[in-house]
């Protein structure tokens, strides 16, 4: 393992941080966050302080706050939702011979933490000398269980290492309404809603156990948290347990022998509900706790590792030639798994459960960037996330009615399914989110042939979103089907006519809905779908208007886009990025400047609608106008760069996507990880250098590596078949791991993936002139670190 | 005079309301408001209650309040401004034999109020029987002086008419921080800013005089109000004067003989300043008061009448065949004069000084609708209003910089010149306001040849707005000059490319700026204008892109407009109007539905850019899509309807514009009068049936009357020449009133207006099929009331 004085260390299967840096704590709290998709706990130190942002989140648990408007309009959402820091159970405070352990004081002789991608744990070793000269070693290991979704656990050890016995007092807490910074969002109303959002309803303690039940003030959601402990120490243990409204505490005092140690195992259980009573929730978490306690620490660890072994067997991506990228890709896969593993009909938020960024909202990020990874690796998690969307259909139907449309209009941002976007040109108008959800449904179905989901949920989502498009669009005087006045993925344009991405995704949506109705005639009938309606969908799809600029030979991102003035990139210094913080929307919207892949994303997700020549010209055209002021861009640019043959550029973009959080490229990792960018790193590898595409149920590959990589192997699941693809500079090898044989193509050549590995040559690529990016907006040129070099540290 | 039981009475020179209707008070407070453009007082009853909205306004006097955003953006204004109800001096409370006079109690045996358009006064006669049976006659007359701009005055008489003497106590107040309704705007922050906005700084009383000085809490503006009195009564007068922080009061108690009366004359003076101290302001209002007192009531009345005689001699419009319309037109002229007469480098707000609507903000309404009337009747007032705009150039330059543009960007809505619009797609993006201001500058110059203004102010405004357009637009790949991503006058579209109105007005702006620089080379040089810059303006103007739909043979309002889906008018019931209260912006913006004349307004103000055939086709096309959810539309539709030959339709629209407030067509007259619609009524008459146009300094006429009218005579001033035009059904007569002879045209035929009247025949008009409006959105068919019919009462 590489070691350096401070910062992340490069290792293929873990993320290790060596040394103490108080100023970096808020970043590592996000990168070291543990989650199973249901519970999320940030990587704070056990002793509670110093801390950047404490954070314990339960998927779907939020508080409401008013959304203010200086000039309100019809249909503006009145209420916002924001994720709440619930009862904090990860705190174990320590008093060493009367001195509180606080890393800001005394001396950290040694400090390191490790996130282990295979064990699913965060471990810590700290050797601390107190201001009065006593020295202890502290070890902790925590997990949020993938197998018992209500459970987290901590093993905590203290031992004197200065040759003398010492008095140790540990306080293990459940702490509600932790103080947080006054104003995270800049909006005093949100801050007010989050100051002490929990109202105590029940508190009880007995033996080594405590339980607290709270309810939010406005949203009325109820949360229960419970803890139990095992304590192992040789001599003189005295304990006291206590509960009050916002605090449950087990105090353990012991005289630890010079060669002895105090070991505390803390089990935590969480539950929340909008409907269940305080006694019911209390019972629920106490039962979960009893189960975890009965399982025991070692068995929890073993279950965790087994779960992850299975995951890596289906999902791992191996990279040869760039150890840091290898680490980053596994870091990405691990965190995306954490975000989605046990969501179980709750949303996968933009930040997962790693921080309060974006108010804890889920966006189109989930379906477009995160679900592809889950669909092809742990498809059940993709299914569960789509079941959440399905559960929100009543709210999406209401919203469509409010907006004067048919079918269902899914929200731009939400926790519970209700629209929370307060700026409609970049929120409500971005109707593509509904097509993105439909796309994810179709992708999941094609990748799994899960007929039960198709009949129960998928068809209904496809039908209701197709209805939305059929009412949003209209046939013009020449018969073309137009979709006017909407906003595409690029948030530096808004309210445009015939955004190519939106129209192509709507086209797929309409066709997939028609196909789903053919597959599920009973379901279609129950949804009042008529043959005429299906015919109108197919007709709208067939007549879909896709603008094209004949003079320039490129697709305008939307009608008129290529007529607009180019942004003055030469006159825009680096400090003026991101543009939206330094220029008014009006000026950004009306010029040719692209925040994030839009037409280029269309060329990925609807690559079947473009010729190779169009892809090359379009890519180069938009490359010169894309500033990547969003973390949702580099991964898509990587995929298309690889497809059109700019392999080294694709490599740069892949690295940017994969390292977004580890290098804190957007300087906001403290608020949580960028799940879409992490998942996008996987797409960059598998769909970029692997060339994996899946259009309408036909999976295909066109692998090709950049100069810096000597090999890449990735694993996937498709229709129950587990297989792996190993790519070298000259050939690719396809090998079945389990399940039935699978037909696919390699650079257009048919092949069958079977138990006998098949190796096929990679065609030569003609030379390409690399495209230009706006000055200063090029991705960092990737120079792979070898295993003996210091890792890049966050800026 | 026509009389009826209740409501407005038809009379050519006055607006009389007979009878008491408490529920109508809030409406008549607006229609009976008095103002000189500097001070405005609503037509409340002297006794203070019952009241709809009390209101005493000083032009430019406002309070600040925070503008909240759930999702803020760069360049959003942080602070709003709202007009403040200042110290109320129009209150004279009355106690009759221990009974407060309150029209809600006792019996109003007779009650009428008269706004006299020639006297410039509001008079009242009330005969009231108290609950205990005593009967008094109350007469009051008020004026806000056109000749002494700081002064208002009230003559107030009380006489017993039940044959017995009575004890009368009158309390004449200066009252600050009057209680107002909690929430006028729906925004609690605005309401909070307006609850007791004034902080007392000085209060003093002596003899019959009192003075109060206050300062606003946030904006820091200071206001002084002072009153003095004359009291005339036969016997036993006792008076007491008193001043406290928010109240100045003269109490006059008298035993009035059975055949006697108590007469109080109250003089009021107002002053405000952002800079002057409390003592200075106190001195200022006391001096003004001394002046008014010295002038005396009768002389103030005489001055007022003389001022108005002069006005009517230059501005009157006589109508034959529709007495109610005659009254409405003079009502309109009178109120527009009140709004603009003595503004003197302050704005003319959308509501004038008649109510708190639109927060007291000025919009493009001023330059586009109000200033034409003033330019051709009292041009000095137009000049003063434009001097206000000139004074705000520093703020407009700052705003342009903030928006990344050159030159000056005038605000969409403001009191002091700073942008106060919180919704940028329908505010900041409506850049046409700057071209509208430039248009008003050019119109004023062409109509006056006022070289001093041209050199001091006009050229600078034209140059800075031309610079704005030159930076907002760009030459596309084919050389055409495009202006992308802006919002035109029609607020049911937003953020569009090449709005025809905007582009044509910008074209004029660029050319007028170039011409102004040619006229004023020194000024141009001082503004750093180079020959290259002027050439670039002319080139941009010459290459201005004006989209045209060849298939339909009409101009799209903006690029792509005619491709959009038509609004489902048939499926939109009446109660769903105005649309913006019942449908989301996104759906309104992307469909062919027009709130207010946009392309049609372009055909009026830039009629020189369209052929007659285009005008006819365009008018019919937009007529079918215009819903008139704005009071800024009917007047323009009237002008173009008349031009293209739909004379009866023009008549309907003229009536709608003229009666907007008297019939309370938008159900909001309580918040103030619609100055633009009132002024627009004048345009409907003079530019509609008079066919007056003024393109680039060439004034022309094409008069033609609708079937219902037998004659119309209007007066105007142009380049110092006063003249009148008398139109009959068959001919028009042009006659010089004073000044030099004037060249013009009549239906394209040249003529010279001279002392000898010239009569010319009106050409025959070929029959036209009337266009269709959206169902239910037709203007009311106008049936003229004869002089013996009851006037229409407000709905």
UniProtKB/TrEMBL annotation, chains A, B:
Residues 330-682 form the Glycoside hydrolase family 65 central catalytic domain. It comes from the Bacteria. Residues 754-795 are annotated as: Disordered. Keywords: Glycosidase, Hydrolase. The keyword Hydrolase applies. This is Alpha,alpha-trehalose phosphorylase. Residues 18-273 form the Glycoside hydrolase family 65 N-terminal domain. Substrate binds at residues 364-365, 595-596. SUPFAM superfamilies: Galactose mutarotase-like, Six-hairpin glycosidases. Belongs to the glycosyl hydrolase 65 family. Residues 692-752 form the Glycoside hydrolase family 65 C-terminal domain. The keyword Lipoprotein does not apply. GO terms for molecular function: carbohydrate binding; glycosyltransferase activity; hydrolase activity, hydrolyzing O-glycosyl compounds. One of its GO terms (biological process) is carbohydrate metabolic process. The active site is at 491 (proton donor). Transmembrane segments: none annotated. InterPro entries: 6-hairpin_glycosidase_sf, 6hp_glycosidase-like_sf, Gal_mutarotase_sf_dom, GH65_N, Glyco_hydro_65_C, Glyco_hydro_65_M, Glyco_hydro_65_N, Malt_Pase/Glycosyl_Hdrlase. Pfam families: Glyco_hydro_65C, Glyco_hydro_65m, Glyco_hydro_65N.
């Amino acid at each position: 393992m590489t070691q350096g004085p401070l910062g992340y260390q490069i290792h293929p299967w873990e993320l290790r941080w060596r040394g103490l840096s108080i100023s970096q704590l808020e970043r590592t709290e996000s990168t070291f966050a543990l989650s199973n998709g249901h519970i999320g706990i940030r990587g704070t130190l056990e002793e509670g302080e110093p801390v950047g942002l404490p954070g314990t989140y339960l998927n779907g648990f939020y508080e409401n706050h008013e959304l203010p408007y200086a000039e309100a309009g019809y249909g503006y959402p009145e209420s916002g939702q924001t994720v709440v820091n619930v009862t904090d159970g990860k705190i174990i405070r320590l008093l060493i011979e009367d001195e509180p352990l606080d890393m800001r004081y005394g001396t950290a002789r040694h400090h390191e933490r490790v996130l282990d991608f295979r064990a699913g744990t965060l471990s810590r070793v700290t050797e601390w000398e107190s201001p009065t000269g006593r020295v202890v070693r502290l070890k902790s290991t925590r997990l949020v269980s993938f197998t018992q979704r209500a459970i987290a656990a901590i093993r905590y050890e203290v031992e004197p290492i200065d040759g003398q016995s010492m008095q140790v007092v540990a306080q293990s807490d459940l702490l509600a309404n932790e103080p947080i910074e006054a104003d995270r969002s800049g909006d005093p109303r949100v801050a007010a809603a989050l100051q002490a959002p929990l109202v105590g309803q029940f508190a009880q303690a007995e033996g080594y156990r405590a339980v607290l039940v709270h309810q939010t003030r406005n949203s009325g959601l109820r949360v229960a948290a419970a803890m139990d402990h095992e304590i192992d120490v040789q001599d003189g243990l005295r304990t006291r347990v206590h509960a009050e409204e916002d605090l449950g505490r087990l105090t353990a005092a012991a005289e630890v022998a010079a060669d002895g140690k105090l070991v505390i195992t803390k089990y935590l259980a969480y539950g929340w509900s909008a409907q269940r009573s305080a006694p019911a929730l209390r019972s629920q978490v106490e039962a979960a706790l009893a189960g975890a306690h009965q399982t025991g620490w070692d068995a929890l660890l073993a279950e965790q590792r087994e779960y992850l072994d299975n995951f890596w067997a289906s999902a791992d991506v191996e990279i040869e030639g760039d150890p840091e990228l290898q680490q980053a890709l596994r870091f990405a896969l691990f965190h995306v798994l954490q975000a989605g593993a046990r969501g179980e009909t709750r949303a996968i938020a933009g930040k997962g459960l790693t921080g309060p960024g974006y108010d804890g909202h889920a966006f189109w990020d989930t379906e477009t960037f995160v679900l592809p990874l889950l669909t092809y690796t742990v498809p059940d998690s993709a299914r569960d996330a789509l079941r959440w969307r399905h559960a929100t259909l009543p709210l999406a139907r209401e919203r469509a009615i409010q907006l004067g449309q048919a079918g269902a209009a899914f929200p731009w941002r939400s926790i519970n399914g209700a629209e929370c976007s307060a700026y409609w040109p970049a929120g409500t108008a971005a109707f593509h989110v509904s097509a993105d959800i439909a796309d994810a449904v179709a992708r999941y179905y094609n990748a799994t042939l899960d007929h039960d989901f198709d009949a129960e949920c998928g068809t209904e989502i496809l039908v209701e979103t197709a209805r939305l498009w059929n009412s949003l669009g209209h046939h013009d005087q020449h018969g073309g089907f137009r979709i006017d006045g909407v906003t595409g993925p690029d948030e530096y344009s808004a309210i445009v006519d015939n955004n190519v991405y939106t129209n192509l995704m709507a086209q797929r949506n309409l066709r997939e809905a028609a196909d789903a109705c053919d597959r599920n005639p009973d379901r279609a009938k129950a949804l009042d779908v008529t043959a005429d309606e299906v015919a109108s969908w197919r007709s709208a799809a067939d007549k879909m208007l896709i603008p094209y600029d004949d003079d320039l030979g490129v697709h305008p991102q939307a009608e008129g886009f290529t007529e607009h003035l180019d942004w003055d990139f030469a006159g825009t210094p680096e400090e003026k990025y991101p543009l939206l913080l330094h220029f008014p929307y009006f000026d950004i919207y009306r010029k040719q400047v692209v925040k994030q892949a839009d037409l280029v994303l269309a060329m990925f997700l609807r690559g079947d609608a473009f010729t190779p020549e169009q892809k090359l010209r379009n890519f180069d055209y938009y490359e010169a106008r894309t500033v990547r002021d969003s973390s949702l861009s580099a991964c898509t640019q990587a995929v298309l760069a690889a497809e059109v043959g700019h392999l080294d550029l694709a490599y740069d973009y892949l690295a940017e996507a994969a390292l977004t959080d580890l290098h804190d490229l957007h300087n906001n990792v403290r608020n949580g990880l960028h799940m879409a960018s992490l998942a996008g790193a996987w797409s960059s590898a598998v769909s970029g250098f692997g060339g994996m595409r899946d259009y309408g149920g036909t999976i295909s590959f066109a692998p090709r590596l950049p100069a810096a990589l000597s090999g890449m192997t990735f694993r996937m699941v498709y229709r129950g078949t587990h297989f792996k693809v190993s790519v070298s500079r000259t050939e690719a090898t396809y090998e079945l791991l389990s399940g039935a044989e699978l037909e696919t193509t390699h650079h257009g050549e048919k092949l069958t993936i079977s138990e006998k590995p098949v190796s096929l040559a990679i065609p030569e690529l003609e030379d390409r002139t690399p495209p230009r990016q706006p000055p200063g907006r090029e991705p960092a040129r990737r120079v792979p670190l070898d295993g003996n070099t210091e890792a890049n540290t966050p800026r």
